[in-house]
Amino acid sequence: MATKSQTESGRTAEFVIDPTERLDAESIDDETPTHVLVQVSSNGRSQMAIVAAGAAGRWSFDFQIDSSGIEVERAFEEGIRTNVEDLPAWMVPVKDAVAGLVLSGQ
User: Fold this and answer.
1) What is Dmax (Cα atoms) for the chain?
2) Which one, 7, 24, 57, 59, has the greatest CB density within 10 A?
3) Which domain of life is it from (predicted)?
4) Beta bridge partners of 37
């Protein structure tokens, strides 16, 4: 599912995820996307995920990761900064997949 490619400044990996497959029924609403393209970039100390979610918009977040998981430091919706706490519920499986990808060394 995940593919990776090298860039001059670091690594980039892309994958597609259906968040509805990893959420409980109460977390799914009419705005929950079923097809999300995620691009994860890492160069030096900077790590970012760009999330294209169709009608749910374009999101991105800067993050740090360690063996305990992922910590989102800054989040953006359509390029406008938003509170990390305001990320939609469907972003949880996306963040988990990003953490799994990075921790696996992909």
Assistant:
1) 43
2) 59
3) Archaea
4) 16, 52
| pTM of the predicted structure, to 2 decimals | 0.82
Domain boundaries, the chain: 3-103
The DSSP element (H or E) to which 52 belongs, if any, is strand 46-52
Nearest to residue 38, comparing CAs of 27, 22, 49, 25?
A: 49
The model's pLDDT over 35-80, given as tens digits with 9 standing for 90+, comes to: 999 999 987 777 999 999 999 999 999 999 877 778 999 999 999 9
**38 neighbors 47 (Cβ within 8 angstroms):** no
Q: In what order do the strands lie in the sheet with 80-82?
A: 3-6, 11-17, 36-43, 46-52, 58-66, 69-77, 80-82
Encoded tokens for 91: 């972003």
